[in-house]
Amino acid sequence: MHRIVVCSSCEGVDGPAFAEMLRVAIAEHGLTFEVQDHICMSNCARALSVAFSAAGKATYLFGDIDPDRDLADTLAFAKMYMDMPDGWIEDARPAGRLRHCLVGRVPA
């Protein structure tokens, strides 16, 4: 199962609302992700934090996500992530601004 985790306690942004927007958009686009919100992802200096993970795939952590403008780019990244067998994305240009928000990528 593919998973997106959204920080629910980042100060100054509504993480749970962004998680709900993602759930709706993921379903509308037919993507197979579980979207969770989680209290504190320890990336407080770069609120809002969002992570992607799946068994056998690289894990990604993003920060500085703007719920008002990054939904489409988050969906674009989700599609790329889902399509890569090992989750390792070399060219993230289709994810627009999100690629500049990457905090880290951890191999599977």
TrEMBL record:
UniProt xrefs under InterPro entries: DUF1636
Organism of derivation: Roseovarius rhodophyticola
Pfam families the record matches: DUF1636 (PF07845)
UniProt protein name: DUF1636 domain-containing protein
